[in-house]
Specification:
Layout lengths: L15 H11 L7 H14 L3 E5 L2 H11 L7 E5 L5 H8 L3 E5 L21 E7 L8 H11 L2 E5 L7 E2 L2 E2 L6 E5 L12 E5 L2 H11 L22 H11 L2 H19 L5 E3 L6 E2 L6 E4 L7 H10 L5 E2 L19 H9 E3 L8 H14 L4
Parallel strand pairs: 2-3, 2-4, 4-5, 5-8
Antiparallel strand pairs: 1-9, 6-7, 6-11, 8-9, 10-12, 12-14, 13-14
């Protein structure tokens, strides 16, 4: 059989089966049950926050966070253009306008120096995205938020466990969101989490995610809510994954270090930097083929697929997507360059040294000639 290495795959190294079977035996399989409470409590402790609210996916988590902050029609919310589409979509779901920021070239996150010029009287919040697991430089973002009385949302869908100046991602803004999709650092299959230190925001999220039902008066609905709840089965998987998260983070770093040892310094290949103030978690190990390489990114990916290596392109920037073409006038040269020439390499915690060496060998062979 031809060797094939997927770009991502979940790893179940803990008590997932035991906990799921316990759910089945107990018949608590829907949106109530002991695993939801345990997962929320343990995840809050992991992030160093007071409150965590589980929900059915990461996009929903963002929508809940923005609604809890009161973001609505006519508001503007600043966010990076280089991100997964859910970031901008969640803003649009609220009736607000995403205002897009270019990337900075080292970590590929939004460039904090470009935010202030975009603030208007309609700006209500800034959504930062810790892209591919590297934290945003938060101090200048938080300083701007204080200056203009803006709220800060951390989209940490890709950054479970990352550190900014020794502080856990998810504990820095007003509210943060995580995804537990099947390719994330830990997974529930589909799932999300909203975390915050603010009791009022936590209460609002809990109200909205459960159809708007009053927690003190069953089947009384004071607001229009949503069915955004997580199941007990999903939470059982998530808790088992969370119990092993330090192992997952260690494996992700080992994978990244092996890649870096093979690829750092290779002409024409640019790696995402890890700043001295950050602890990158390498959700996806990613590279950019710089302009000295005559092989186009898409051709390199095609050749890699033929050689048994699955890759995927960096995200399309929001400003090239049909629904956000006119969101923010201006140029986004860094995001455009990254998106046109960047790719994610296989990044599973399951990868062996032999797998990584194979990927690197096939990559170097694939970019040698135009």
């Amino acid at each position: 059989m031809k060797r094939f290495i997927p770009v991502a795959e979940p790893v179940f190294a803990g008590r997932e089966r035991e906990y799921v079977l316990d759910c089945l035996d107990s018949t608590w399989i829907s949106s109530n049950g002991k695993y939801i409470e345990r997962f929320e409590k343990t995840f809050a402790e992991f992030c160093g926050v007071r409150h965590a609210m589980a929900c059915c996916n990461g996009t929903v988590a963002l929508h809940l966070a923005l609604m809890a902050l009161g973001i609505g029609r006519g508001d503007e919310v600043i966010c990076p253009t280089l991100t997964y589409v859910a970031t901008a979509n969640a803003i649009a779901y609220c009736g607000a306008k995403p205002v897009l920021v270019d990337s900075e070239p080292r970590t590929w996150n939004l460039d904090p120096s470009k935010i202030e010029a975009l603030v208007t009287e309609k700006t209500r919040a800034i959504v930062v995205v810790h892209l591919y697991g590297h934290p945003v430089d938060m101090d200048p973002v938080l300083a701007l938020a204080r200056k203009y009385d803006l709220r800060v949302v951390e989209d940490a869908a890709e950054a479970h466990g990352a550190l900014y100046k020794g502080r856990r991602i998810g504990s820095l803004g007003d509210v943060a969101t995580f995804s537990f999709y099947g390719n994330k650092i830990i997974t529930t299959g589909e799932g999300g989490m909203v975390v915050t230190n603010h009791a009022d925001l936590a209460a609002r999220v809990r109200l909205l995610k459960g159809q708007g039902m009053d927690t003190a008066r069953r089947y009384w609905f004071p607001v229009r809510g949503y069915n955004y709840r997580m199941t007990n089965v999903a939470a059982a998987i998530g808790l088992a994954q969370l119990e092993k998260i330090e192992w997952y983070l260690e494996r992700k770093r080992e994978v990244a270090e092996r890649y870096a040892a093979r690829l750092a310094g290779v002409p024409g290949i640019v790696l995402q930097a890890e700043e001295s103030w950050a602890r990158h978690v390498f959700w996806m190990f990613s590279i950019v083929l710089d302009d000295s390489r005559k092989v186009e990114r898409d051709e390199a990916m095609r050749r890699l697929a033929e050689r048994g290596v699955e890759t995927r392109p960096l995200f399309y920037p929001m400003h090239v997507l049909p629904m956000y073409l006119d969101a923010t006038p201006g140029a986004f040269p860094v995001a455009d360059w990254l998106a046109a020439r960047g790719m994610n390499l296989p990044s599973s915690a399951r990868l062996t040294e032999s797998d990584i060496d194979f990927v690197c060998e096939q990559l170097l062979a694939s970019i040698e000639t135009a």
